[in-house]
Amino acid sequence: MDMGIALAASQTIISSIKYRNSDQTIDFIVIDKVVNPGSSGSPVFYKDKIIGIASNNMNQSHLIGTMLINVPVNIGLVRTSNYILELLDLV
């Protein structure tokens, strides 16, 4: 194993799409992969188009003694490309 930048890609399944209540645009996409620490901001593709960026994952929290342990549950969150464009408009 080397230290440094490593590129990786994997296929995923879109589990669900969450919409904003106000205007029914897509707020985020739920996928069946964990977004590892440091991977936030990575592009998410569908065919040859970027549809969003990896942003977060969901965890189950377990209290073991006095320690709270977060265990990934293989559910990742993707912010849509519309979100990226909204951020760029703020700059």
Shape type: globular
Write down the domain tally: 1
Gap from first CA to last CA: 39 Å
Assembly state of the chains shown: single chain
Order of helices and strands: EEEEEH
| Count of strand segments | 5
* Structure annotation, total helices: 1
Helix fraction, binned, reads 10-25%
CA radius of gyration = 15 Å
Note poorly predicted spans: none
Q: Can you give the mean pLDDT? A: 80
Give an account of the 3D structure:
By secondary structure, this protein is mainly beta. It has one domain (14-90). Helices cover 11% and strands 51% of the residues. The chain has one helix spanning 81-90; strands at residues 14-19, 26-31, 43-46, 49-64, 67-80. It has a five-stranded antiparallel sheet with strand order 1-2-5-4-3. A hairpin with a 6-residue loop joins strand 1 (14-19) and strand 2. It is globular.
Write the layout of secondary structure elements.
Elements: E1 14-19, E2 26-31, E3 43-46, E4 49-64, E5 67-80, H1 81-90
Antiparallel strand pairs: 1-2, 2-5, 3-4, 4-5
Tag the structure with descriptive keywords.
single chain, 91 residues, 1 helix, 11% helix, mainly beta
Quick summary:
With 91 residues, the chain is mostly beta strands. It is 11% helix and 51% strand.
